[in-house]
Amino acid sequence: AQKITQTQPGMFVQEKEAVTLDCTYDTSDQSYGLFWYKQPSSGEMIFLIYQGSYDEQNATEGRYSLNFQKARKSANLVISASQLGDSAMYFCAMREGRASQGGSEKLVFGKGMKLTVNP
Amino acid sequence: AAGVIQSPRHLIKEKRETATLKCYPIPRHDTVYWYQQGPGQDPQFLISFYEKMQSDKGSIPDRFSAQQFSDYHSELNMSSLELGDSALYFCASRQSGRYEQFFGPGTRLTVL
To answer: Closest approach of chain A CAs to the CA of B29, in angstroms?
Structure first.
């Protein structure tokens, strides 16, 4: 079974500073993918970024980048130039069950971490 | 851009009642997932459908059932509701050949 670990229950960062959210994973699969989602207090689950295990470059989406270190099994999210609207819960997730093998690609989530951006 | 639509957004039920949650995936997305997120918890996978067939099943109680219809929308039927079913229920959709799952806004179910 796959496992996602987010050890930081909460973090505080000053507006306009960069912040790194940690995520480590455990899997025996060679092909896998990692996701980050943002969940504001309003409750919706917002897709931020995806990294495939065979992707040669770290994924980037605007102010979000994923620091993917395969040997260390870590997939940390880096948010540059934090904004007040970045205050939210952040979940790291991994897809499980490959569609090419009849699987569903369902997501397994970590416990999440709360980011607070201070003005 | 079109997003995943869920209805209703909020639902209040009594114990032992039934509830039906609806999900309309993003156009051309052929896979639908249902997740349950309890208070202060991470989302847990319930069930998924691909091309109107059940593709995977997680920790979904026998009291719950779901299906995907010909227009790809999906419904989660919940019977004999219990207090512990109070949660945020998400539907997510994915397009074949892509890995990203996009979530709907969720249905917040409260069982009294």
So the answer is: 14
